[in-house]
Amino acid sequence: MDDFLYSGVGIAIALVSVVSIIGCAVFLWANTTRKLAPGDSVGTTGHVWDGDLAEWNNPLPRWWMYLFYITIAFGLVYLALYPGSAAWGGLLGWSSSGQLAQESQRWDARYAAMYSTYLAQPIPVVARDPAAREMGQRLFLAYCSQCHGSDAGGSKGFPNLRDGDWIWGGTPEQIVESIGGGRMAMMPPQVESIGEQNVKAVANHVRSLSGLAHDPALAAQGKVKFDQICVACHGMDAKGNQALGAPNLTDKIWLYGNSEDTIVETITKGRAGMMPAQAEFLGAGKVHLLSAYVWGLSQSARK
Amino acid sequence: MTPITGSANPGPGAQVPAPPPGGVAQPGAGSADSVETSLFEMRRKLYPRAVTGFLATQRVLLVVLTQVAFYGTAWLEWNGRQAVLFDLAARKFYILGFVFWPQDFIFLTGILVISALSLFLFTAVAGRLWCGYACPQTVYTELFMWIERKVEGDRMARMRLDAGPLSGRKLGLKATKHALWLLLAFWTGFTFVGYFTPIRELGGALLSLSLGPWETFWMLFYGFATWGNAGFMREQVCKYMCPYARFQSVMFDADTLIVTYDQARGEPRGSRNRSAMRRAAYLDADQKVDPVNPVDPGVNPTVVPGAAPTADPKAGLGDCVDCGICVQVCPTGIDIRNGLQYECIGCGACADGCNKVMEKMGYPRGLIRYSTENALAGKYDDRAIVRHLARPRTLLYAALLGVVSAAVLAGLVLRTPLKVNVMRDRANLVRELEDGRLENVYRLQIMNTREAERSFTIVARGLEGVELVVNEPQPIRVGSADARTVTLELRADPKAVKPGSTPVQLRIEATDDPRVYRDEKTVFIRR
User: Between chains, do B432 and A257 touch, taking CB under 8 Å as contact?
Assistant: First the structure.
């Protein structure tokens, strides 16, 4: 409130609320009885419909009036207990964020028991448990499918998780690390180090590594530059380095695409792949179940 | 036109003026000072007198019927589960052999439309039948009054007890009454919650004091509401809270059966000597009056010139002996002789009460009876009422009711116990495969609404050369009344598909019954 309004606004709101509530009580009290002139009676409201349809101006039941007073008392008690007036935090110290924290804590405690069973088991064991797999799928569909696809098949820039090929390593521990800690892949732009005139040649060499159609002369020219610069991360054999997240360039799996144009773009501008860290957001239990699910997917793919 | 606020409009012939609105002091004519009057009246407690008779028997039958159904149904079993259970947490609603899912909400709508149309129809035909015989407010008030009568005695005894000083006996009776009331009220709350949590489990939890917080709350709340509404609020619920009470009257017309007092026959009312009347062979005299065309209201029908014996012990009085029974039995505390009033719930207690008196007096029954405004006005004979049932309003209500009921029934019988949702992946529109083909990813949710496990096969149709890859071994097994999500891919040659989106169908079919299938439409996207 105080961020965009003057600080007195809380007091003003509190004042308006309290005065209104008390005003209601006074109004009700002042209108409980009515003076009738001699010979006068309450009678009907004076409205007539359809020729003969009139309405008694009958008094409300007494308990109805008590309900009004109860409502007024409720309003005052509520303002005292809860932060309803903006000027006053309330005797209970309640806040919506506090309630959220409390409820999250309650549910976390409730799920902790379930997760701790799985956390105690190694990932290959969890992956074989049908109930855990089902939970893993639901978690995957909720948290992972936006980038990796509902079927974990990935898309451009987002790796396929079920093909048995891993950029950062496919052991259970490495998968837990990838999900929990996130990954920051960095292919720096190489146009300056390689030289703009050589980029196409290097791209041809890269295509030749996995047996794709290429210009042999250009590829041979590109190999010189590749061996000077690219090997630092992708290795002498171009099979990549999982510690750096440098992909294997000799297989048929391409994260950003294998056309010459795409490879030229990758070399020229670089690539920055980013897997956000989930440990803090999801907690160890969910990360464990997700790791087991993802690991299980790649195992069945290998068969 | 029927005045719904009849007490303001007592109708012709009423000799006694309408009672003043309760609690409002009527200023004396000669008073010089202005009078202070409360705008909030204290409720005058009613002590309805017990009544027996044809209509009362019908009501008791309906009370028994509805309550046996309410308290009993919760305990019925069907296929190893509770026959009627509304499982809110799992979002499944079991009614006998049916399992309804949230997607079946249309049936609830249908039932509500049927209920509304039934109310319209019954109200147009015979007034507030619902209020008088079937409404929970009436039914539970009836049950609570029955307990009250058994414990404290009938009207006079109850009035005496309440007026008397606090004594051990009074305390004992009141405590017994409330104990029984609360027992019934909380049993009602327990049964109510038992439709949402399996009642046997609930019973176990109750006995071991391990109820959940919400179960406890709703049980106490519903029980408390029953106790308060049926024990204390009673007619005030109908008078001040119930919207039905107010709008039902608009469905009345001059041919609607209503509980009504025959002014022409009853007025002028007055007490008389019964034996004297018998001697005067009153009945003969009365039968000479033409019931179809009674004389001017307010004029004693028995003094039609030439028709009445001169020494009439009725001394110019009508059939109403002004015993007040009709007022004493009324659960809403009104006087039916003032004409139709919005407070009248149409229970007919006054008719039963009056008939008893008429029999004792040796007069014909039916001074207060079910009749219509037109019949009462002499436009047709009471026997012709049935013929006037068929009129545009009732025929229209009945036709609508028939159509909607048939539609709901047909929908129930013909529905396929299978629901399917297809969700295309929206983040990855298209994937390119190594072999150059394009791939789209879908999520398929298969809901088997039958209470038995079933297997389904999936086929893609409508797109030439499309390949379907389901990431689960086919056929897909889905548990009893369960849902399952599978992911699948469609693959197609980019040359075979036009750019943009191409419609494609997924047919999901039960392996054991080819009639159980769904064709879900989706699209295949090519960049």
Answer: yes
> Looking at the partner chain, which of A34, A52, A137 has a beta carbon nearest the beta carbon of B1?
A52
Rounded to two decimals, the ipTM of the complex is 0.76
Q: Which of B7, B24, B476 to mutate to test the interface with A (most CBs of A within 10 A)?
A: B24
Question: CB B35 to CB A252 under 8 A?
Answer: no
pLDDT tens digits for B211-221?
Answer: 989 999 999 99
Residues A158-180 have a mean pLDDT of 92
Q: pLDDT tens, B250-281?
A: 888 899 999 999 999 988 888 877 654 554 43
- Taken as a whole, chain A contains a residue count of 303
Chain B interface, best mutation among A150, A156, A262, by max B CB count within 10 A:
A150
- A and B: number of Cβ contacts within 8 A: 129
CB count within 10 Å of CB A173 equals 11
With CA atoms as reference, the chain A residue closest to B33 would be A38
Look up residue A95 and give its DSSP letter: -
How many CB atoms sit inside 10 A of residue B201's CB? 12
- pTM, to two decimals: 0.77
CB-based contact B455:B477 (threshold 8 Å): yes
Residue B74 β-bridge partners: none
- Give the position of tokens 């308060």: B228
Q: What is the 3-state secondary structure (H, E, C) of B303-343?
A: HCCCCCCCCCCCCCCCCCCCCCHHHHCCCCCCCHHHCCECC
Distance CA B344, CA B329 (A): 12
Q: How many CB atoms lie within 10 A of CB B172?
A: 11
**pLDDT band, residue B30 (cuts 50/70/90):** very low
| Best mutation target, B39, B42, B334, B424, to test chain A (most A CBs within 10 A) | B39
Mean pLDDT of A167-177: 93
| Interchain proximity B8–A59, CB inside 8 Å | no
Q: What is the pLDDT of residue A252?
A: 87
Of the candidates A34, A58, A153, the beta carbon closest to that of B431 is on: A153
CA B285 – CA B280 distance, rounded (Å): 9
The secondary structure of residue A246, as a DSSP letter, is B
pLDDT (tens digit, 9 = 90+) per residue, A21-76? 999 999 999 888 877 777 667 678 888 888 888 887 777 888 889 999 999 999 99
Tens-digit pLDDT profile for residues B379-436: 988 888 988 889 999 999 999 999 999 999 999 999 899 999 999 998 888 888 878 8
Pairwise CB contact (< 8 Å): B39 & A40: no
* Residue B18: Cβ within 10 Å count: 17
Residue of A nearest to B31 (CA): A38
Sign of the dihedral through C-alpha B428, B433, B437, B442: negative
CA angle, residues B494, B496, B499, in degrees to nearest 5: 60
- CB spacing of B425 vs A149 below 8 angstroms: yes
- Compute the nearest-CA separation of B270 from chain A (Å): 27
